[in-house]
Design brief:
Blueprint: H1 27-35, H2 44-55, H3 69-86
Length: about 90
């Protein structure tokens, strides 16, 4: 229960009609990591982002799975932008 006590973690779609966070965002994995920190290694989606970002030349070394969410979001946005530009 950590520093913040017992928190309920919900997605936008749990509050109002929306597709957010979408099928590509692993909300259930994020919730599990918050509830059970250190219970498993890096989620596969983070490893996939790192592998793809290295292949695309966006990064030159692996990133720490514990890095802030903003880093993962920016990497994924950059990868999506590259895919769009190549199409």
């Amino acid at each position: 229960m950590g520093r913040c006590g017992k928190l309920q973690i919900i997605g936008h779609k749990d509050v109002m009609a929306t597709a957010c966070p979408g099928e590509k965002f692993p909300l259930s994995q994020v919730i599990q990591q918050v509830r059970e920190p250190g219970s498993s290694s890096a989620p596969s989606w983070k490893l996939d982002i790192v592998k793809e970002a290295r292949r695309a030349g966006l990064i030159t070394s692996d990133h720490n799975p514990e890095d802030p969410a903003e880093k993962w979001f920016v990497l994924q946005v950059a990868l999506n932008l590259l895919k769009t530009l190549k199409a």
